[in-house]
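Because discrete structure vocabularies remain unfamiliar, it helps to consider an illustrative case, giving the amino acid sequence and backbone structure tokens:
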Amino acid sequence: MAQKRLREGFTTGTAATAAAKAALRTFLGKPPASSVDVPLPRNGRLTVPVDRVTLLEDGARAEVVKDGGDDPDVTHRARIGAVVRCRPGAKPAQVLIDGGTGVGRVTRAGLPVPVGEAAINPAPRLQIEAAVREALEEADAGGEVRVLIEVENGERIARKTLNPRLGIVGGISILGTRGTVKPFSNQAYRDTITLSLDVARSQGIRTVALATGGKSERLLRAQRPDLPDTACIQVADFFGFALEEASGRNVAEVLYACFFGKLVKMAQGHAYTHARKSRIDFDVLAAWCRDAGLDAGLADPVSRANTSRHALDLIRPAPAFPEILKAVMRRAAIAARVFLGPEPALTYYLFDFDECLLGMHREAGGPL
């Protein structure tokens, strides 16, 4: 029986973007819209329903109901609003974005947003700004535009997220690197990994490239432009499953592309690396850092790190940094062998958050 096609939704970032554009268009003289067309962070566009638009004395407010599609999370059906105030002036306009009621504020280091700022991640910020500039261009307007993003009951919703543990207080985060929510069925994703490996085998591909997501795949392919499309497989958080499937398909080499947080989780033996199911033991990571030569005075803060990004920032300036990365990659390779077996060669590609290659670790494996 054919599998039901899962319906995509959109992110909190796209909801905030649509609200901001709808509010500004109304303030600039357009009739209130029931939907708006907005840019997505990487490419493409999406038409988003708008629930309501209200003119204010000095601006406008619009509200969008966030739709998670067939992958609903705690923010599904959240009401995300944008209050827009515009001071006419010269072009190009200045766009200022902040978070209001229901949007969290960052209180700890290690997140993509600096301490003290609203928890609106970089990609949604750029997305909101792009949509605002589109509305200004439509109206041939300039000046200064202030956008305040709000989330009804955002503080209550945030209690069901990782925000309190990450030091994001007062509400949810505005997120979304692609703008849409790809429906996530564990079984469907595992089936896709299996099918992708079968296709690679049928084409005689002996080197498969596993990546935790689209970004890590893109960065790996920049390093290895020789890889055919069918060799590259996005395995998300299915670390153990993907390697077990690869081990049974006579591959000669597995390449694994990831970022530091996933690498540490792999090294700590998590077969499934999703944030809801696995957490980094920072005490263990700190011990590994000390073993690799990090001074105890620097290792102690690692044990109290807020996120993997925070831990990476703490160890980056240390002379022992290269040895620490090698040690973690070696441990990840040891953990990988539990699922992959001893025979295929295994190469880790570790990328930084700024998209540079932080390190590689290769093991030859045994004879096939």
